[in-house]
Amino acid sequence: MTQTNVAAVILAAGLGTRMKSAVPKVLHKVAGQPMIGHLLDRLTSFGTDRTVVVTSPDMSTVAEYVAPCPTATQDPPLGTGHAVLAAREALSGFDGDILILFGDTPLLTEETMRAMVEARRGKNNPAVAVLGFTPEDPGEYGRLVNESNGGLEKIVEYRDATDAEREIGLCNAGIMAVDGARLFALLDEVGNDNAKGEYYLTDIVAIARKKGWGCVTVETDDPDEVMGVNSRTGLAEAEAAFQYRLRLQAMEDGATLQDPDAVWFSHDTRLGKDVTIGPNVVFGPGVEIGDNVEIRAFSHIEGATVDRDAIIGPFARLRPGADIGADVHIGNFVEVKEARLDEGAKANHLSYIGDSWVGKGANIGAGTITCNYDGFFKSRTEIGPGAFIGSNTALVAPVKVGAGAITGAGSVIAKDVADDALAITRAPQEERTEWALKYRIRKKAEKEKEQKEAG
Asked: Is 267 a catalytic residue?
């Protein structure tokens, strides 16, 4: 099979009323990406010549998200067959194979799409290839009735099926690959003589058979792949299935997950070799982790890059723009945002590093914060190589601490510090001999007097 002369129609007009959301259903996220985005990524990898997304009126947010992919509007919504007809103009002149997909099936794989097109281009030139699956409980799914020679005889809805047909375990996933030269001729003959008065895409199988055109079935061995999301419960189920897939892939690619079920990936998380990830680690979008990195428990990482041999956490937070160099240590309750830490730098305890550069081998003491925002503007802090920032230092940006410089614990540094200098701003220590003892004696006497007067 070549990768050319294939188009896709993604049906995304459903309002998703059971989601009870102002957000269109297909824009709800799985693994950090809108569901329809997963399909668009797979189609990009597949290499379709055209892709059209069918939406409802007032779905400008969907159109904006899928751009520059064109959209077609189904108005009013009159069933799945009617929805595909809305894409007719966008597919004008196209006579290759057309994949018909649903925007709420984020787990559909590129491999299955290829299998669908291969089947459509197979023996005897069938008009339609339909994707089937065998769930543990077929329930009220439509059934795929196959002939003895392997061809698809018909799709029968559960309510219309005979007892024998209801015993069939192969169910209709709704996804199809159709010969583009015949698709709209089939759709033009679909009627709406049914209880809902809608035009059903599934009717094209029967119409094709009446014309003497063959139809075939492709079966996925993973029912999760065709899971459609219609509710928040379904969204959670899709998330769980997608996370299982991502965890398995991470381990197969050479990462150690100490408690796989407690690690949450984004769709685009990139891990190097021999990465170790502790329990309850969450990856948001845009994360790339280098080789031999250890990420300890309860860390949250998003929009960040971590180079080789670094140690992150436990309880660390890397926010967008965090750029962690090789062999850097980011410890418990340390937050990094829009900051670069060069090789060997350490921030092991209770610190905030934002809008900053930390040079090679610098040490950030516990309780240090970069004061990067004055209520109107953000400013930058620069900490030179080998600098030592004492505990509870507040670095008021814009400010530079030179290479090898030291700041005294508890200092507020608001002016630049020269290389190898000591900067300290706390008041001189004062000691009053036996003051604490006299204080306790006085307070004890006052308390005894108060208790005596109270009687």
From this structure: no
